[in-house]
# Entry
Amino acid sequence: MHTDDLAAFLHAPAWQRFLQATSQTVERYGDGLYVKGNLLNKGTYWRGSRVAIDATWEVPTFCKKAWFIRLEPLAECREHLAKFGNVRVTDSIQPKQTIFLDLSAPEEELLAGMKSKHRYNIRVAERHGVQVEIVHADAAEHFGRFWKLLTETAGRHTFRTHDENHYKNMIELLAPEGMAHLAFATLNGQDLATLLLITYNGTATYLHGGSTQAHKEVMAPHLLHWQVITWAKSADNRLYDFWGTNAVKQEDGTWEPRANHPSTGTTRFKLGFGGQVIQYPGAFDLVLRPIPYTLYNGIRRIIRRQSSF
# Structure
């Protein structure tokens, strides 16, 4: 089992085609994809998420004229990056932490690894007659159902989503490739919960999801995830990645959601399925042109202060 596979879809050929279809400039260096960003005064930067950086890594040729490279490495690498320029800690683009399940374990073991309340809630959903539907190659035909629940959830919890076309293009391009799947939990024909699953190279990643406030008592999201997990296992995936969490390690070695954080409830839900927590190093800017980078950072701080009022 290789946890490096947790975000491998970000470097898949099909993901590259999706990024290019959304008018983004993408280059490949080694096994990783790098995406170009534009700044003021014709400045540019490149970003690489979940990239492997080791002793063989060099500044890619296509980055030579950039102001900086924003990197989210799989493992700590600041000492190596420092050979090429100043390294500054910055905000992460992808989640800094995730939970994954080892799907090589038997289903009984996966159930036993859950919090007892989660097992109970799965049975509650089954008793109420909640049904789970997973759609694959024709997932784009069901996009409207997914988008409705996603935007309802975003409005309720005040988190931002990408625009509609971002998700629509993703599903239209990746579903026929066998990478994008939509799942729905329904009761008497009404959609109660949904999720977007990305599968690639033996890993199933829960990328986005949503639910309605209606019939909360039937615990539809619990059964939805459980049946998606069992489907992913049956489809020969080795890992199930919950993608983003914000948990704090306790003195006894267990993990608890960060208190008073917007994602506390979501993190508690994901932790309830068991699994292992992975902490990534974070995000770093490798500064290639110090003077433009300093100006860029100064303007960025001013904009952030203004937008906070």
About this structure: The radius of gyration is 20 Å. The chain has nine helices and 15 strands. Confidence is low (pLDDT under 50) at residues 305-309.
